[in-house]
Amino acid sequence: MSLVEDFQRWLEVVMSKVIENLGSNVEEAQYELSESVDVFMSTMYYVCVKFKNKTKGGQREELFMILKRPTPNQICRQLIPIDPQFHNEILFYRIYATSNENFAKCFYTEERPPTDSVIALENVSKRGYCPCPYAYDAPLEYILAAMREMGRFHAKGYVMKEQQRKKFFDIVEQLQEIRYNESNDAQRCLVNIPSPRAVEYLRNQGHDAIFCDKMEAVLSNAFNSVMIKTVTPTEPLSTLCHGDFTLGNTLFKKEDDGQLRAMLIDFAVLRYSNPAVDLSTFLCLACSNELRKDKFFEIMRAYHDALKKYLLDAGIQNIEKYSYDALLDDYRRGALHGFVIASYFLAILMGYNDEIFDENAIKKMMERMQHKKICGGEKLSKILADMLLQLRDFDCLKHFL
């Protein structure tokens, strides 16, 4: 059987199950595949289902959806734990997300690794949601919209943790670790090699030697001293975190009142952790140093106001442990997490280091990691150095110095 025939058979089987899941009110359903897009760890198939709606007198309707299927690319599969990522996202849509919340509707999921798992999601572009036009350094309105949505997302975890504790921790137990296993040598190199870059720049600029020595000791072992330490849950503030909160994993829609509304997508690295894991990642990757310096407390207030409102609306009475000061302190303790991610990922967002995953990717792993330490030149080194000093000024490094 050819690859095309194999794909067609897979698509027919999947779509028959998707259509069955739409319910008994759907009849004479047919589907059309418009395009497919490879997005690194998966292939996205854009499908339109046309049907008669029996509840509306047989009115013809269209339903636009996206099928996500794991990539068969062996190089990608050796570099990235794709099956656990699909497991986590399927778990999210099956058990955690509900239809009345601000997530894409999920029509069907099936977990059949390595390449036949599938997630059928609503194509929310038909509701007006679009990717952010900025890969980094987004304007304040995008930052505030995303942070408000993250406030609601974290609060959802707190509500379930208090009101459905067994169900909540059943979900936590089923989550699979993606990045921070002690045995993950590739991730260790990815983190440890580029992380001291900002310190080296500061040292070359004649900055305080004691500060540089202390931060170099921390960042040269950032995988253990920062990342694993930060993602380890501490009570009472641990909640379900997105795990990869970036502009690229956030969609935006302009509401009728002119305000931006954000929607989170891609829950492959969902984890039980502290809010700082998400907040520090987003603020270090999405904000310019200038915006973060001038608007940091306004941004954090927007996040906390949305979180607090969600908790009160859900009937949570004892919200003191989720106070602004408590969450701000949690951020300060974990803020270096986002800086470490920026040390190796900001170059990609700025277009300096496009990853190429070919047959040489694994053999040249160390070479690729070393390149991340220099790509973008002094311009990027200065951005990271200023970011590190800003964290110091915000009192986010006292736990390490």
CATH class of the largest domain: Alpha Beta
Helix content: 40-55%
Query: Could you tell me how far the N terminus lies from the C terminus, measured between alpha carbons in angstroms?
Result: 62 Å
Shape: globular
Largest sheet entry:
5 strands, antiparallel
**Strand segment count:** 10
Strand order of the largest sheet: 1-2-3-5-4
Low-pLDDT runs: none
CATH architecture of the largest domain: Alpha-Beta Complex
Which range does the strand content fall in? 15-25%
SSE pattern, N- to C-terminal: HEEEHHEEEHHHHHHEEEEHHHHH
How large, in whole angstroms, is the Cα Rg? 22 Å
- The computed structural class is alpha+beta
Estimate nothing, just give the exact number of structural domains.
Answer: 2
Tally of alpha and pi helices: 14
Describe the overall structure.
The longest helix is centred in the last third of the chain and has 26 residues, at 324-349. The strands form three sheets. The protein has a five-stranded antiparallel β-sheet with strand order 1-2-3-5-4. The chain is globular, with a radius of gyration of 22 Å. Helix 7 packs antiparallel against helix 8 (209-219). Strand 2 and strand 3 form a beta hairpin. It has 401 residues and is an alpha+beta fold. It has 14 helices and ten strands. The protein folds into two domains: 3-126, Phosphorylase Kinase, domain 1, CATH 3.30.200; 128-393, Alpha-Beta Complex (Aminoglycoside 3'-phosphotransferase, Chain: A, domain 2), CATH 3.90.1200. The protein starts with a helix and ends in an 8-residue tail after the last helix.
